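A.,

Following up on our hallway conversation. Structure tokens first:
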């Protein structure tokens, strides 16, 4: 039997005290760390319209038929104007001061109850003014969705609420695989766990090397991180005004992302900042000194001499913009082999390359080419062209991008109107609302970013992917509708592959 000595008891008591003190100290440190932790969130807030889109439906009411109907209503319900003047619409279209004699079509949701009950005197038609917005790629549906997302900042599609197409051209031909309902799943969306949307901009070595003492030697990562996998591209066409540049500047600062702008505009408008990416065409030794705060400077096209000049005169990362025209693969590899940190690939605004292929196929080719050459992580791929919907963002990342560059969505988020081409960048012409204020515009763009980020979280959560970096090039998490159809119907008489597209 062991007997405790007085000394032993004292030592044990001191040990307990030390442990208690240690526990209290670690709890304090933990508390301080927890208090300092800031969970990234985009603060959305509903804002009013300053130039609303045309309403969705026209409601045409035959006055004679309506008068007869109201008479019969009086016969049934007596003189109750709020009842007899509002029917048959429960959405208030017929509830104005003179009822259906002056309907209020902006309240119509297109349920068609009125036309089904009274086909003899009510017609509900799509509004041609709304249908005329956009073009065959960026449709009035995309513009309406962007408008709604920028107004409310709400997630566009959650759960089984998707009302769009299952198949079609472009990004509609890609479905995302959400079959793995595992953690982080909903926990990541509702904040109990973290799903990361940060991405790294810059270059990383394909492996790290250490000396015999365990110190890192050789090339180390040269990059910075932004909180969302999208940046704002140079405003296309005539949209690049100082006003818009100021709004992009303040929005980027707020949500921690980047905006590409012509270098001359950055200089003229005094916008040099860490979140502004000046795009230069012919750099001089003084160019870099003009942008001391820039973390990334882009060259507007590959030119070895210009690239080396820029590289040697700046501490910032250097990127190269490359259009998907003939020979883009060779140009991209030349830029990567010369240590470009970022490649910014551009399709046209319909998402097509020079050979007519869609941008998702082109991005896959770029991603796979870099993997085959063993240098994928040495460069960041940013891509632009054809990204006009929240679901296009994860689909472009699945196709191989690190981050997406947004162009036309900015115009429609700010309730601007297009008067030119929506296919070629140079041909874009647009006007922004006269009543637009900078605060209003910043909140609209912030709402759009919040909405698209939330949609991304929904998709990552449904896939069980903990951060967007892991989505890059995950072709296996997508399904191509034409492939599925070929698998199911090939060999059946009359089936034409790709017919649905
Ligand atoms: S379609 Fe529906 S919402 Fe529109 S006016 Fe008729 S009843 Fe009202």
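Then the amino acids I'd put at each of the 501 positions:
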């Amino acid at each position: 039997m062991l007997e405790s000595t007085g000394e032993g008891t004292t030592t044990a008591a001191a040990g307990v005290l030390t442990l208690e003190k240690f526990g209290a100290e670690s709890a304090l440190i933990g508390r301080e760390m927890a208090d300092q932790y800031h969970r990234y969130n985009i603060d959305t807030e509903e804002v009013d319209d300053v130039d609303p889109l045309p309403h969705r439906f026209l409601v045409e009411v035959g006055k004679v038929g309506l008068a007869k109907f109201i008479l019969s209503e009086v016969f049934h319900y007596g003189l109750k104007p709020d009842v007899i003047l509002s029917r048959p619409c429960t959405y208030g279209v017929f509830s104005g001061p003179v009822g259906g004699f002056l309907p209020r079509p902006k309240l119509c949701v297109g349920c068609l109850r009125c036309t089904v009950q009274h086909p003899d005197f009510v017609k509900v038609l799509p509004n041609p003014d709304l249908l005329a917005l956009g073009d065959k790629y960026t449709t009035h549906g995309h513009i309406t969705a962007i408008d709604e997302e920028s107004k409310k900042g709400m997630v566009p599609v959650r759960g089984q609420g998707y009302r769009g197409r299952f198949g079609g051209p472009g990004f509609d031909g890609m479905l995302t695989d959400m079959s793995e309902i595992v953690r982080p799943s909903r926990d990541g969306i509702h904040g109990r766990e973290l799903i990361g949307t940060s991405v790294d901009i810059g270059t990383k070595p394909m492996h790290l090397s250490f000396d015999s003492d365990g110190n890192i030697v050789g090339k180390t990562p040269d990059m910075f991180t932004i909180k969302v996998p999208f940046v704002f591209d140079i405003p296309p066409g005539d949209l690049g005004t100082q006003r818009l540049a100021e709004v992009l500047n303040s929005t980027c600062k707020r949500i921690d992302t980047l905006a590409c702008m012509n270098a001359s505009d950055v200089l003229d408008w005094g916008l040099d900042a860490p979140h502004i990416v000046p795009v230069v065409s012919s750099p001089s030794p003084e160019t870099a000194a003009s942008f001391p705060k820039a973390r990334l400077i882009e060259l507007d096209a590959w030119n070895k001499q210009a690239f080396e000049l820029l590289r040697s005169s700046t501490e910032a990362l250097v990127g190269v913009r490359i259009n998907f025209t003939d020979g883009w693969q060779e140009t991209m590899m030349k830029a990567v082999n010369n240590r470009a940190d970022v490649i910014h690939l551009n399709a046209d605004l319909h998402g097509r390359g020079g050979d007519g292929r869609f941008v998702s196929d082109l991005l896959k080719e770029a991603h796979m080419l870099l993997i085959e050459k063993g240098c994928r992580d040495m460069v960041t791929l940013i891509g632009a062209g054809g990204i006009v919907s929240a679901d296009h963002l994860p689909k472009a990342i699945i196709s191989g991008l690190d981050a997406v560059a947004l162009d036309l969505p900015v115009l429609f988020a700010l309730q601007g109107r297009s008067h030119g081409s929506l296919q070629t960048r140079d041909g874009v012409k647009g006007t922004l609302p006269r009543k637009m204020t900078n605060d209003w515009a910043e909140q609209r763009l912030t709402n759009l970013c919040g909405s698209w980020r939330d949609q991304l979280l929904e998709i990552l959560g449904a896939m069980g992917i903990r951060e967007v970096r892991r989505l890059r090039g995950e072709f296996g998490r997508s399904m191509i509708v034409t492939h599925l159809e070929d698998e199911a119907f090939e060999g059946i008489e009359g089936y034409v592959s790709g017919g649905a597209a």
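The pocket of iron/sulfur cluster is lined by residues 59, 88-89, 91, 93, 108-114, 124 (CB under 6 Å). Curious whether your intuition agrees with the design.

B.
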